[in-house]
Specification:
Layout (H helix, E strand, L loop, with lengths): L1 E5 L6 E3 L16 E4 L13 H13 L3 H16 L7 E9 L2 H4 L17 E3 L3 E8 L2 E2 L3 E11 L6 E10 L9 E3 L3 E6 L3 E8 L2 E8 L8 H27 L6 H22 L8
Antiparallel strand pairs: 1-4, 2-3, 3-8, 4-6, 5-13, 6-7, 6-13, 8-12, 9-10, 9-13, 11-12
Length: 280
Amino acid sequence: MIDVFDKFNFTGAQVPRFESVREEFPRELESSVSFPADTFKPPEIKESPTVRLGNRRAAPQTPQPEPKVERETSFSRQRRHPDEPGQFAVALVIIYRTLGQLLPEHYDPDHRSLRLPNRPVINTPVVSAMVYSEGTPLPSSLQRPVSVKFALLETEERSKPVCVFWNHSLDIGGTGGWSAKGCELLSRNRTHVTCQCSHSTSCAVLMDISRREHGEVLPLKIITYAALSLSLVALLVAFVLLSLVRTLRSNLHSIHKNLIGALFFSQLIFLVGINQTENP
C-alpha cells in the first residue's frame, strides 16, 4: 500500500486505509501502520545556558529585527508555494501473509530485551513500513515511534504476545533474527494486537502455543474420550445382542440394529478425527 503525505499539513495517518478499499481482501491481512502527527517535525534542539546568556547580553546592544523578518518572510514564502520540493512524503507499507513462517527461527540472544516463549511462533502477518522524503527514506531508527495494528492468524490457543522486528544486524546465521528492542505491546483483544515500534522495518508479533489460554481443557478432554468410549462399548454390546438372539429377529429389530451400527461408526469417526484438523 502506498500513500502520499503533505508534510506541512500532516495531522497523522493510517496506512492502509481499509475503509476506502472496495475490493475483497483476506481478513487476516487487516493490519495497518499509524503515523503520529509529529512524524515529520524536526527534533527540538535545546540551547545551552551559555548560549542563552550570551544572547541576552548581546540583545540590548545590537538589536537585529531584520534577520527575524527575513526568517518570517522565508517561512511565509515556503507556505505560499505548496509545490516546492520537499513538501510531500511517500509512505510504503507491505503486508506479508506467510513471511513469518518462511524466515529462519533466529532470535535475539539477549534475554533482557527478548523473553522468548516456550513454543514461539509468528502469529501475525509481517508488516514492513518505509517513508520516503524527496527520494530518501527516513532512518530506520525513528525519532517518534509508530503504532502497528496486527490481525492475528490464529485466535485460539495463543498466548504471551511479544512485539518483535527483524534485526538484520544480529550475527545469527548471517541473516539476522527477531528482536524486541524498541518495540512494546500497547493492547490486545481476541483478534488484534497493537504494538509501538521505533523501527521502520519488518515487524510482527511472536506468541506462545498454549492449549490452556482460554481455560483448562484437560478435564474436558478426559470427559469427551471417556463418554465416547463408554458409548461405543454400549452400542457394540447392543449390536451383538440383536445379531445373536434369534427370538429378537424381526423387521423392527433389524431397523434398531442398523441404527446402532450407524451411531457406532459415526461416533468412532468423530473420536478418531477430533485432532485431525490440519487439512481444512
